[in-house]
Specification:
The chain contains three helices and 40 strands. By secondary structure, the protein is mainly β. The chain folds into four domains: about 110 residues, Beta Barrel (Thrombin, subunit H); about 110 residues, Trypsin-like serine proteases (Thrombin, subunit H), CATH 2.40.10.10; about 130 residues, Immunoglobulin-like, CATH 2.60.40.740; about 120 residues, Immunoglobulin-like, CATH 2.60.40. A hairpin with an 8-residue loop joins strand 3 and strand 4. About 5% of the residues have low confidence. Bound molecules: 4-(aminomethyl)benzoic acid (4AZ). The site of 4-(aminomethyl)benzoic acid has 11 residues, from strand 15. The site of 4-(aminomethyl)benzoic acid (4AZ) has 11 residues, from strand 15.
């Protein structure tokens, strides 16, 4: 039995049979949110569209947003909507049928939608490397309308050359039909809402998303205060920035976030500029190729982005190669340099790849890659200390000539070092008058003899006015901070630290968004998600009276 199993048992025990008591409350007042927005007026963002459930024809029911994008031809005519992949894919990975979706164009008010504004789709194109693994990666899709829209201004998509326009601190604009009251329920407006907020530095944002984000993501929010954000229902819609001459650029696609408008957790967007050439390839029917190398954890209970290994012990690299364009690719060459310090495990290369010691690289050749085809290639290496992926890339031939990709951010596998992860478990709703636990779980996913760590403290900032009924596991409270010393956390181990809080009154919201691990006063790792509990009604059981 490993510690994760113990943890699961512990959590089950925690949420059963708790003593009930009544005590005072303190919850944040609900905020109006897109989160924090105001109604869109006609003409504000003419390119803003809603994705509608096609089979509901007596009203316009929006489930996501999107944007009409410039196709490079006549500016006021386009057939293309840019949106998020996760709007179109169900939990089993099935892509929606185009006939199930309509796009509402030129109308910010769902109650005023006319049949002529409800447009059919002819095609859905989802990025072939879309991954949903806690964090969303490559959350990008295009919708081709059955007939072009004319007379509506589309938005131009940002390219890497525009990067100063969506640099940290720049003002961005968001709009959509998403939830305005995520703290306490669902309030989906009929009229789209809009707001403005700054772009947040990726490294700062990544502190709160546990390092899972990369340069294919973009964050926006008021940091650390929160209060303005996109939310459920805004997904797929545009994050816009100034183009410097009175217009807008499409800089991000609403993708995900922890909560909506929460302190410390900016909203996360797919970075449009990263996908600009992929988008252009779909619109123009061009060749395109993608490659992405990852070192996923062997154990499925470990978050996808955490890659650790023990010293001199084999672990697997996965290389995803996609024909992400519209044309057949031939004679594709995939080259992956081994990380410096790593040695190849003999016989571990999949799919006919060949190791060349002169270049310390593995090469795979493919006679043909069909449009949409994804090849998953693997090999194993081992190393004494942490390694970062070497150069990798793919080159292929097409009717457009050669196409190439250098892949994504390099990926580090942590070897023989601690890799800390902090998260929280809590009931989403609690009964009025009850006492309930919030368990903060600290895990060290590091592997190897030197991967343990000592002298940690878990520190939880409680919202003003919250007084724990009890603090378990040796924690102490000073002001609004509860802290637990953790003398040592061995490799591949974890602990839970629990506070017991009192539910307030019906509709109260309690949210803890700032907790993390410290070494002295140095923050090592912040909590990977926030805590939010909502107080529900107490259930009163009538006594059974026997006659
Ligand atoms: C969503 O689930 C979602 N706060 C969209 C945006 C954000 C969170 C969730 C950002 O569609």
């Amino acid at each position: 039995m490993n510690w994760r199993y113990h943890l699961a048992l512990l959590l089950i025990v925690l949420f059963l049979g708790l003593p009930a008591s009544v005590s005072s409350r303190d919850g944040a007042p609900p905020q109006l949110t897109i989160v924090g927005g105001t109604p869109v007026a006609p003409g504000d963002y003419p390119w803003l569209v809603a994705l509608l459930i096609a089979e509901i024809t007596d009203e316009a029911v929006a489930f996501c947003g999107g944007a009409l994008i410039d196709d490079g031809g006549v500016f006021t005519t386009t057939q293309w909507v840019l949106t998020a992949a996760h709007c179109l894919i169900d939990g089993d990975g099935n892509v929606a049928d185009p006939s199930a979706i309509e796009v509402l164009v030129g109308q910010q008010d769902l109650t005023q939608a006319t049949p002529a504004q409800r447009r059919d789709l002819s095609e859905i194109i989802v990025h072939p490397l879309y991954v949903s693994a806690g964090t969303l990666y490559n959350d990008v899709a295009l919708l081709r309308l059955a007939t072009p829209v004319t007379g509506i201004t589309p938005i131009r998509i940002a390219t890497p050359a525009d990067s100063a326009r969506f640099a940290p601190g720049q003002t961005a604009y968001i709009a959509g039909w998403g939830n305005r009251l995520p703290q306490t329920g669902i309030d989906l407006p009929a009229v789209a809402h809009k707001a403005q907020l700054p772009i947040v530095d990726l490294a700062t944002c990544n502190e709160r998303y546990d390092g899972a984000l990369s340069s294919i993501h973009l964050c926006a929010g008021i940091y650390p205060a929160g209060g303005v954000d996109t939310c459920q229902g805004d997904s797929g819609g545009p994050l816009m920035v100034s183009d410097g001459s009175g217009g807008f650029l499409h800089a991000g696609i609403v993708s995900f976030g922890t909560g909506c408008g929460w302190p410390h957790f900016p909203g996360v967007y797919a970075r449009t500029a990263f996908f600009a050439d992929w988008i252009a390839a779909q619109i123009n029917g061009l060749a395109h190729v993608d490659i992405w190398q990852l070192s996923p954890p062997a154990d499925e209970s470990v978050p996808f982005h955490i890659a650790t290994a023990a010293p001199n012990t084999p672990f697997t690299y996965t290389v995803l190669v996609a024909n992400s364009g519209a044309l057949l690719l031939t004679d594709a060459i995939v080259a992956v340099e081994l990380p410096s310090g790593a040695t190849l495990v003999s016989g571990s290369i999949s799919g006919g790849g060949v190791y060349d010691s002169g270049t310390n690289s593995i090469f795979w050749l493919f006679d043909e890659l069909l449009p949409g085809e994804v090849q998953e290639l693997t090999y194993q290496v081992q190393a004494a200390t942490s390694v970062t992926s070497g150069e990798y890339g793919v080159l292929a031939n097409s009717d457009d000539g050669l196409v190439a990709s250098d892949g994504r951010d390099p990926f580090t596998t942590v070897i023989n070092q601690p890799r800390l992860y902090v998260t929280a478990f809590y009931p989403p709703e609690v009964e009025v008058g009850s006492v309930y636990p919030v368990a903060f779980v600290v895990a060290n996913f590091g592997q190897g003899p030197n991967a343990g760590i000592a002298n940690l403290a878990l520190v939880v900032d409680l919202p003003a006015g919250v007084t724990p009924v009890a603090i378990g596991d040796g924690g102490t409270q000073t002001g609004n901070e509860v802290s637990w010393p953790i003398a040592a956390l061995p490799a591949n181990d974890g602990v839970a630290k629990t506070i017991f809080l009192a539910a307030g009154e019906l509709g109260d919201v309690l949210r803890i968004t700032d907790y993390g691990l410290y070494n002295g006063t140095t923050p090592l790792r912040y909590g990977a998600r926030g805590v939010q509990t909502i107080t529900g009604p107490a259930i009163n059981y009538l006594p059974i009276i026997s006659r």
